[in-house]
Every structure is written in C-alpha cells, then in structure tokens.
Amino acid sequence: MSAPPPHPDTAALDRRDLAWYVDKLVAVLVFVGGVSAVVFIVGIFAFVTHEGWGFVSEHFSLRGFFGSIRWAPTSTSNPTYGALALIAGTASVTGLAMLVAVPFSLGAAIYIAEFATGRTREVLKVLVEMLAAIPSVVWGFIGLSVMNPLIIDVFNVPIGLCVLNSGLILGLMAAPIMTTIAEDALKAVPDTYREAAEALGATRWQVTRRVVLPAARQGLLAAVLLGVGRGFGETMAVLMASGHAINLPTSPFDSVRALTATIAAELGETAVGSTHYQALFALGIFLFVVTFVINLSADLIVRGIRKT
Amino acid sequence: MKNLIALSAALGLLAACSRTDRSGASGGHAVIQNKGSDTLVNVAQAWAEAYKKVDANVAIAVTGGGSGTGIAAIINGTVDIANASRSMKAEEIKTAEAKGVHPKEFIVGYDALAVFLHKDNPIGEVTLAQLASVYGEDGTVTKWSQLGVQVPGCPSDEIIRVSRQNNSGTFVYFKEAVLGEGKDYKLGSRDMHGSKDVADLVSKTPCAIGYSGLAYATPALKVPCVKKADDAACVPPTIASAVDRSYPIARPLFMYTNGEPTGATKGYLDWILSDVGQCIMVNKGYAPARPVKCDG
Question: Which residue of B has its CA nearest to A242?
Fold first, then answer.
C-alpha cells in the first residue's frame, strides 16, 4: 500500500498544462501593455521637459513668452521668443473649429442615437468613423488646393489660407470623434427614461430635448472637450491651411500660425541644444500641459457620469 | 529562427557598410553619406545617380532635410559630405572644432534667387530697395499701389508676402542679401515649408509675392528682373547672370567635408567640380561654379 497523499495546498491543485502557461503569459503581456501607457506618458513628459528646461530656466519670462507676438528665434541682431501670436493662432483656429464641429457632431449623434433606426443607423455610424480615418495631410492638401482658391473667389479676399480655412478643416476632422463619444453618452441614458416620457405623451423631440440631453449633459461636454484637445494638437492640416503667418487674428480671413505647426516647421533644421531648439520644446511643454488638462477634465467628467 | 538569421545577417551587413564608410578608401566598396540642403537635393541625387557609371565601387546615399540638418550632421560626424545653401555660421564652426571636426568648404555652384509674382501682376522689374521695404521689419510698403501698380484680381491691394520657414538656407540668404546684415523680416509673412510650396501659392494668389531658387520657377509665375539700385541695369535671373555674378541675389551653394577630403570622397568631389559634374548642375537649373560648356 502506498503512503497517503500529502495534504494538498492550493498551488499544487493547479494543473500546469499549456492553458496554465498561456494564462500566465497573457497576464504578463496585458500588464506590460497596460503599464506601458504610463511609462510612455511619463517618459515623453520627462523628455520634453528635459529638452526645453534650458529655455524655461534661462530665457523665459512671462511677459516675453506670453505677452509678445515677436517670434523671431533666428534673428541675428535681436532674437525673441514671443508665443502670444502662436497661442492666439491655435486658439482661434480651434475656436472656429468647435463652432463648426459642435452643432454638426451633436446633431449627428442625436440623429444616430435617437432618431435613426436599423440599417440607416449602422451605415451612418460606419461612415462617421471612416471620416476619422482620413489622414491629416490629405485634409491639409484639400485646404491648400481646394479651399484656398474657393475662399479667395467667394469672399473676395487676397488669400484663402486663414483661420476660416483651417477652422473648417479642423472642425471636420474633430467631428467624428466628438460624434462617436456624444453618441455613446446618449446611449448610456437608460431606456426607462425615454419610455416614461413617451408614456406621458411626449414627442420624440420633446423626449430628446427634455429628458435625454439633460441626462447626457456631462458626456456631451466630455465629447466637446476631447474635440478641443484634438484641435489643439493637430499639426499637419493646420500647417498647410492656416497660412503659417505670425499675426494676431482680427477676422476669420487673417492668416495665423499654430503652436504645433511652428514646432513641426522649425524643429527639423534647428541645431540640437540651441536656444531656438529649447524654445521649441518650451512650446511643446506648454502644448502638453494644455492638452493634458483638457483631456483630464474630459476624463473626470466622464467618471462623474459613471458615479451618478 | 529564420528571422533571427536574417536579422543578424542584416546587422552584419550594416556593420560592414559603416566600416567601409569610415575608411573612405578608394579601393573596394565605399559608401559616401551625403546630406543637407533641400535646394541642392535634386542635384545631389542626379550626381549620385550619374556617379554610379563613373565608379561602380562607390555608392552615394543622398538625403535632404535642410542646410541646418546637413551642417549638424557633419559636426556630429554622421556624414561624409554636407550640402548647404548658406555658409556655416561662426558658432557652428566653433562647435565643430570643439568636436575635432574641421569643416572644409567647397563652392559647387550658384543659385539665382528669383522673385515670384502672380502672372497677372504688371510689375516687370524690382529693385533691392523695394524688396527690402516690402519684406523688411522697418519697411513701409504693404500695398501694391505703393509700388505704383494695380494688380488685376487683387482688389484689396494688399501685398501678400510669401516667405520660408525661419531656418531654411533660402530664408537666411534672402535676409542677408536683401534686407541687410542684422535686419529682420516684417512679421506676418506666410512662411511656407519648401520652395515648391512658395511657387504653388504665388501662382494661385494674385496679391502675392514670393522668392525661391530659380529652379522652382514655373511658367505659371512671373519672374521679374532685379535691379541692384535705381540707376543700375535690370538683370533677369538666369544661369548665365548667376555665373557672371551680375544678378544681385545669386548665392553660392556649398558642400562641406571634414578636413581635406581623401579617397572616395575626394574622387567624388573632384568629379562634381569637373565639367561633367558641373553640366549636371546646369541641366537641373542651377549655375555652375565656373563657366563651362555643356551640350544640350
């Protein structure tokens, strides 16, 4: 007779077969995937700060950076690093883009979520998502070669590379992501709300306006904020369609220059470690902080919804 | 496993390449790394292509990126020849010397900087002073009527200044040659990312004025002749007027090596400066470093 089996502990109960190893491996892989986002964001922030710190600590002044429009980093007699015009450029283009994108994308989201049914809804959803797949350089090209002559002709202005041009394009680029998130927010409103309102005799629009939209308020705000973040960070299309001119815009037909476009246009030919190079990274730090705050607030708002 | 073998083979090849590259020996296989100015990149590629037939043992890898990029690369020792459409700045030479790199300059040709106007623009000649008052920081000209013309298709009369991004060699040369040493551009010019974009935008915008290398001029543009002063002769930008230096805004184009070139690099540079190499330059729309006779 053999000895009685030893008291089994829980680990020994695991069957160490292929499935067990696969399970452990996948657990490690998804952990690495999950943590990598944190590693990358910290790494990128550390890199951008490191490269730009020389400028921030030695040449930075609030008045010189945020209060001056004179961005002339390669001037031999008097190099200055005024970012006001660049910030105004980015803000004006993003602002106009939101004027275009908010009504469009909220309208599309309400139609898809509340009015469209069956096939129409599915086809529309796919098409909206396909709009997000158009590369930004293609949008920029449309701005440069289609919209520029069109704006010159229609509005009788000297040049069509302006806030209006890039704002329209950026609005179309930001609309798909805003539509998708806004639609998710509307879907998250429980059907019992709608049924209760309908039982009281409300029309479809009354249900949407009085019940669904107020209930989805925070999700819609988050959608708009993510769109703003998208607009702030867009580079190529804005570089091509905005005219890339240092200018405080006073009308939609003025050319402007965006923060991102400045970095993209100048970084490639700047000597590594020079003041100009560090100043471009200082612009990068500023952009990073602004988009981070925008995205963080969008995220906090979405979290707020889940709790209620 | 197969992938691993392929990978190590590729790595080995890479190592072999960089070794021959460093030695720069004329015997055996050599790779010359050539990088820099976007103005020169078309010519540099044509040279590299043609040189295959002259010496099959030498391969030339050409990349663009701009004069600043090329100069940075020669300072960091990652290329054998840097192309530049401006000369190295004193501080760049100082950085290079500090790293033990002794840049040697070769003028490989000249480029006439043409002024671009929309084809409907009636202006046929411009003076350097006019250009400076349009582009310069203390210039007062912002309307076409101030230059005595009315441009069809431009009812606003506003001069749309088209320029280049602020670290391109073209931007720097135009600044020094037209605005004067130490002067700056007026803010608000549309700064294009490439000479071709300048030509495109000006050809589609009646109110615009721009500048770029003559090689980028197209039939859709008007290219006025340029006067050094009011009483000087008006010289149109051509290859001939760039060679004899009568055109006022022609700039030399440079190649830089680390110290006196040797081996394959020397052979290549000598060939570039020979009649054959210089005629390739002429065919691409640039002026040669010295007068040459080319057929065709």
Answer: B190
